């Protein structure tokens, strides 16, 4: 989505959604992002963009609940090589890699669904074939009876 939702962060750590004119929680921000929205979080006192801080807080909460959202080896690399090298990697490559993966995954899901849909068509075709075979078997049995062949 091109539309960013502006969220104001107050000194008391409250978050205010300017689109809905109401206070929201950090979980609500995560929900907005999961539903496809982009958010921008601004500190109300100085206008500073604190989006990265709030999004990192969301990831940290998830890591706390899931006991390890990111692999420990990756966390070691982040600490070891500092922000310069990893910032470039995350900024240039990780986002593109994730986007490519999501496109690939959707393509594969679509293809599997197409095969399943064809499978359903094959099932109805097989059912029709079985009925036709029953008719042929009935015809064959009838022919055998009248022709005297067993």
Q: Concise description?
A:
The protein contains three helices and four strands; from the N terminus they run βββαβαα. The protein has helices spanning 26-34, 51-66, 72-147, and strands at 4-9, 15-17, 22-24, 38-43.
Would you report the number of β strands? 4
Number of helices: 3
* Order of secondary-structure elements: EEEHEHH
Question: What structural class should be given to the helix and strand makeup?
Answer: alpha+beta
Biggest sheet strand line-up: 3-2-1-4
* Rg over C-alpha atoms, rounded to the nearest angstrom: 30 Å
Q: How much is the average pLDDT?
A: 79
Helix % is 55-70%
Biggest sheet overview: 4 strands, mixed
- Poorly predicted runs of 5 or more residues: none
Number of domains: 2
How would you describe the shape? elongated
**End-to-end C-alpha gap:** 73 Å
Tell me the fraction of residues in β-strands, as a range. 5-15%
Which features characterize this protein?
150 residues; alpha+beta; four-stranded mixed beta sheet; 67% helix
SSE inventory with pairings:
Blueprint: E1 4-9, E2 15-17, E3 22-24, H1 26-34, E4 38-43, H2 51-66, H3 72-147
Parallel strand pairs: 1-4
Antiparallel strand pairs: 1-2, 2-3
Helix pairs in contact: 1-2
Q: Could you explain how this protein is built, in words?
A:
This protein has about 150 residues and is of the alpha+beta class. The chain has two domains: about 1-70, no CATH class; about 85-150. About 65% of the residues lie in helices and about 10% in strands. The protein contains three helices and four strands, in the order βββαβαα. A four-stranded mixed beta sheet has the order 3-2-1-4. Strand 1 (about 5-10) and strand 2 (about 15) form a beta hairpin. The protein is elongated and about 95 Å long. It starts with a strand and ends with a helix.
């Amino acid at each position: 989505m091109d539309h960013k939702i502006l969220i104001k962060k107050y000194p008391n750590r409250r978050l205010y959604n300017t689109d809905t004119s109401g206070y929201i929680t950090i979980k609500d921000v995560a929900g907005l992002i999961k539903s496809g929205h982009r958010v921008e979080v601004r500190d109300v006192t100085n206008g500073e963009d604190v989006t990265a801080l709030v999004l990192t807080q969301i990831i940290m909460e998830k890591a706390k609940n899931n006991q390890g959202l990111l692999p420990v080896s990756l966390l070691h690399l982040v600490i070891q090589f500092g922000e310069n090298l990893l910032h470039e990697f995350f900024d240039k490559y990780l986002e593109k890699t994730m986007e490519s993966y999501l496109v690939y995954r959707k393509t594969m899901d679509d293809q599997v669904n197409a095969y399943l849909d064809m499978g359903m068509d094959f099932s109805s075709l097989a059912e029709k074939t079985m009925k036709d075979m029953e008719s042929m078997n009935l015809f064959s049995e009838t022919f055998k009876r009248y022709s005297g062949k067993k």
